[in-house]
Write a structure and sequence with these properties.
By secondary structure, the chain is α/β, with parallel strands linked by helices. The chain folds into two domains: 114 residues, Rossmann fold (3-Layer(aba) Sandwich); 38 residues, no CATH class. 37% of the residues lie in helices and 17% in strands. It has six helices and five strands. It has a five-stranded parallel β-sheet, with helices on both faces.
Amino acid sequence: MNKIKVVQIVPLLSPGGAERVAVHITRGLNRRRYEPIVISFSGRVGCDLDHMLEDAGIEARYLGKHPGFDYRVYSRLDSALKEYAPDVIHTHLHVLRYALPSMLLMKRVAMVHTVHNLAEREIIFMQIPRRRGKCGGQRKDSGIPMFFLCAWRDSRRRKTTRCC
């Protein structure tokens, strides 16, 4: 049986809550069914999360991102994803601005993004202007980008519908 390859992408493996969630999810996967890897945009920090991954025998890739916008992350992440050829990509925090272009070009890959903060703080470039009125059943002026509410509702119905 082929193992399902799962990639967790985080901005850095620091001792924060979202990073800890990603590491615990990765460590909790059944190793007979799943082959996990963690990709961190920054370099190695040397905190307990790095050691937890090492002890569990899980590979961690560090892309060496510098503070601020770093265009080199696009090609480094694309190369890592092509080399690993994952079945599932799970992103955390504000990594979508770098990860989404590569993710959209991959075929037959399940994609999950966990929102750990207010949606406005994590998904900066994907902001869609708020619209008044009802769309997908959310409250008026909810503050959550319309794209995600509509996509969530559509995924629950298991059919593609146009929202708004």
